[in-house]
Description:
This protein is globular. Helix 1 (39-45) packs antiparallel against helix 8, helix 2 (48-57) packs parallel to helix 16 (332-353) and helix 10 (207-218) packs across helix 16. The chain is built from 16 helices and three strands. The protein is an all-alpha fold and 379 residues long.
Amino acid sequence: xxxxxxxxxxxxxxxxxxxxxxxxxxxxxxxxxxxxxxxxxxxxxxxxxxxxxxxxxxxxxxxxxxxxxxxxxxxxxxxxxxxxxxxxxxxxxxxxxxxxxxxxxxxxxxxxxxxxxxxxxxxxxxxxxxxxxxxxxxxxxxxxxxxxxxxxxxxxxxxxxxxxxxxxxxxxxxxxxxxxxxxxxxxxxxxxxxxxxxxxxxxxxxxxxxxxxxxxxxxxxxxxxxxxxxxxxxxxxxxxxxxxxxxxxxxxxxxxxxxxxxxxxxxxxxxxxxxxxxxxxxxxxxxxxxxxxxxxxxxxxxxxxxxxxxxxxxxxxxxxxxxxxxxxxxxxxxxxxxxxxxxxxxxxxxxxxxxxxxxxxxxxxxxxxxxxxxxxxxx
Length: 379
C-alpha cells in the first residue's frame, strides 16, 4: 500500500461517525437543535432542568416529570466527605484538574458505577449533573481558605451554583443568566469532548470514565478553553479604541483571535447572540460596559473575515458575562463542563445502544525492517 492508496481524514473533518438523535447542527445556516427543538426557543423559554430532561429522555417533560427530575437533582447535590478531602489535597490545582480527579473518585462511591444499562446511566448522569457543581464550588471556596458552602435543597440548579460560590442567594437576573449559559452549553454533537467520551464508552467503560475523558478533553484551549483566553485578550486590549490595532497586529503575526471561528459553523454560532445581548444588559445594569464595548469593537475589527466564514462563537461573549459576575477566569471552562454533563451522558447512552469499538487507523510512514543493533555496538 502506498500513500496514493490512502485518503487521510486529518481531524476526522466532515466524517460521520454514527447516527444521533441528540442534536442537529447546520453550520452554513447557523442552526442548532436539541432533540429537534431550536436552541433559540430553549434559551428564551425553557430552563436548564427542562433541557436536562429533554436531552436524557428525548422529550419535553410534563409538569410532574419535571418536578420529579428537579427533586432528583436536588437530592443528589451532596458529595462524600472523602471527595472533599481530595479537593482539599488538590486545592492548588486548576479547577478542571480538580473536577477531573473528583469525578473519577466519585465512581468509587456510586452504587451503579459498573452498570451500563440505560436506566443506570440515566441515574448516574443526573447525579453527576448535580455533584459536579458542588465539586467546583467547594474547590473555589477551599482554595480561598473558606469552608465550602453546602448545597441548597430548594434553589434551582443555576441559582444553587451561584449560591455555593458566594454564600448568598443570587438575584433572579443572575440566576436566569447562568441558567441560559448552562442551556447553551448542554449539547453540541460530536465535538472533541463528546467524541472522546464516545471513544471511552465504546470500550464499555463506565459513565464516570467517559465523563472524565470529556473533562480532560474540554480543558484544551482549542475546545473549552477559549472563553478563558478571550477575557485575557480583552484585558490585554484594555480599551475599545485599541481593538482594531490589536487584531491587525495579532493576525499579521499569524496569531489567533480567540473566540472567532468554529470547526462546524460558517455562519454566526446561534448560541452567541443570547450571550451577547445578556452581556450587554448585565454590563449596563452594573455600570460596567467596558468589556462588551471591547468585544463589540473586536467584532467590528474582524468584520472583513466574515466572508471567509469566520464569526464569533459561543465562548466569545461567555467570558464577559463571567467577568461581570466576578467569576475567576480559571472557572470559565468548569462552567462549560457543568452545562455539558447531560450532553456527554446522552452521547454515552447512544454509544452503548449501538456500540462498536471506535478504532481508526494511522498510516505508517517510518522506516521498515531495520536490523536490531546490540546496545554495546551502537554509536
